[in-house]
Please model this.
Amino acid sequence: MLWGVTAALLANLLFSAGFVIEKRALSALPALSAARPTRVVLHLVRSPLWLAGATALLLGFAAQLAVYRTLPLVAAQGLFVTGLVMLLLLSSRFLGERPGGRERLAMAAILASLVMIVLSLRGTPERISQIAPLTGLLSVCVPSLGFAVGLHLAADRRSRRRHRRPTAGVPYGVAIGCLYGVSSLAIKGVAGLLDPSDVPGTLTAVLSSPYPYLLLFTGPAGLVLSQTALQRCRASLIVPVCTTVNFLYAVTSGTLVFAEPLPGEPLRLALRLGGALLAVTVLLALPRHDTAPRETPDQRPRAPLPPAGRPLSATVRPPPVDEPPNHRPSPTPKGTPHAPLR
Model:
């Protein structure tokens, strides 16, 4: 259990650092579009900083293999959600993305859910399922992949409309979370087939399963969709939504597909489910739209300069002449001729 919790916290640190590094790299790249995936990949692989962030993410996925081999699916996903705290701290420090009141509340809820899930792991060991039926796995994963790609493309089209409020990226996060949820199921399946004592047998078992082929789709698709979303929206909002949706998807679908039982003891069951439900509140506490930045005096529009050859005084209105209060012009008597104009 201790090794699994340590591997999960290490994976959280690697994922958070990888997302922050990639966000820094994306700020120096031209605008990316999911409709042009080849152009996106070419821009990314030419950035050394982005490659460093991608390396951190790959190491995080490797750490997930150790987590899924030692911890139940619900507990593992609950621990992964706690990485949001690390992400908010790193994005505030290195990206200047200051968390709001609801985001700080979400950090406190995540820490509480971490404690509850860790406490639910104490006691008798639980059975960890490793193999999922092919029909059940594909019936869950294939529609989810289609939904994720369609939702992201729809959000991409809406973002191009004029006079639209700046979105915080919730649709992007939901779409990427579904992709990563399918990846989580595939990684758990690969972890269940690993046998360090029989490398040839492990390769045969993995290649004859659907898990690597699901990863071949979710890897490139998640790369293109996540990078375009990170470039347009704040990492401190995209990644929490993505992580929470990934958690919900992996827990609900994975528990059904892998038929992994929950704890039988009432207290451990309450802690496990309570920590999971508390993690869900993170998604509900996050804002749906970014607040418009306040206009500073330096950013206010200034009056246009006069055309060349015209004095500046010609564009400035003269100040009003002060008149005494209750001043009324004296009426002109009837029959009095007006002074002639000269």
